[in-house]
Predict the 3D structure of the following.
Amino acid sequence: MAKILLPYHAVIDAQDCNGETPLHIAARKGRINVINLLLEFKANIHSLSRTEETPLHIAVAHPEAIEVLLKAGADPNSVDKEGRTPLDSEERSPFHYAIAKDHLATVEEFVNDHEASVDLLATMSEVVKYEAFNVFKYFMSLVHTRANSFHKSRTSKALLLHEAVSGIDANLRRNGSSALHLAAQNGYEGYVQKLINFGAKVDARDDENRTPFHLAAQENQDETVKILLGAGSEINAQDDDSITPIYLASESRAHRVLQVLFEYNPDMTIATLSQGWTPLHASIDRGRWWGTELLLDAGAGPNLVAHDGWTPLHLAAFKKNAGAVKTLLNHGADPTLTTKKGDTVLHLAVGQFGVGVIKELLEHGAEKYINDRGETNDTALHLALKCSDCHVELQLLIEHGADIDLRSSEGLSTLMLATIARDLEKVKLLLNTNITSRADLKWQLDDLIPAYRAAIALYCQDVAVNQKEEASKCFDLVKALLEKEPELRDTELDIKLPIDLCMRLSNSGSEHN
């Protein structure tokens, strides 16, 4: 069709709604014959679309088309509407488009085969003498074009290994990172080794003061870690927060790296500046149970204390990680240590509804500190009574010797705590438990009267605001207390007993005078 129309003076550079000419369209489709024909009829090789793309931009998927256009004088450094100069790290030349689309053959055409690209590299080599940093940024911008999917990009790999970068300072940085940081993070061992051969500093620092070793450890790149350590990377390198590579490996799924690091005897006592956490803290915080066991087997201290006084065991209890708690206890963790606020591991476990953790602690001798008071001056039993559920936790604590006769931080009895919570199950559990700290072992009338009065007062309060469901709970509490101690019927009350409550008690078989 083009052969027919062109001799009849068809407008060769006519633009469609997108501003594209026939040459753009032929370039997009890689139609070499049509491209040659259009160029023969003097088509504008520099014509711009609405987005200021040249035919060369459009042809990136077709190396043969690129070759034809370059030989015809297309500018390999032209930029689109959003582009800038070749030395700008954010520019998008046709070279960048080829990388972004992962057209390896096209990139190789640009880098290796064309006179235009050779001239470009020669120009850059000249500029190296004056602006090495800018040139390096240019090459890094090419690599970073596909940074979000770097591991899938053949072109990025080719660029990183290309000899064109061998004359550029391998220690210059882009966006705070060196090429070695990028290669190490993505686990490209060949590139890591080549960059080191080019003179890259193995302990170069990024904007967070992290080395390539930090990034490789975090991403579980064990082979890269071996190369870096073999090249002299500092095993205990610390970033701005004193975070070490083993810390990052511990909080990540980096078991392979951990096993490599243990061969180099890393310091597992180095704690972060911000929290005072060790690698063991980090592993537990992220729920890396297998990492916890690896660290402990390698000699990590189970009783190292963070700034707030939390040991790894406190953290495991707070995280409800029964497996980690068991492992820590088996490796010598001290369950009697308290946080700076005074909480035991048992306080933390109850506060987080950690039944499994409580069982592990009780099996490992928690009876020794079961009645210790914590930050709020409450025992673990008081915390269980104050939480909205915790029935299993409460029963476990009572069965293992928690003292139900101790008063809470507010001066309330355990029975009163259960009553004001309107929790019948907890009240019954307490009523059916002997007070082991007393010689008589039994609840006395003086213990029951305050709870009885409170239950009636709550009932009246709920009825007054038409809270029928809550009032029903309070009725059940009154009934349970009367069944435990019928003499409560004779208790002098501060308020007049509601008639409806008397009737309900009478109908239920619990008479009240």
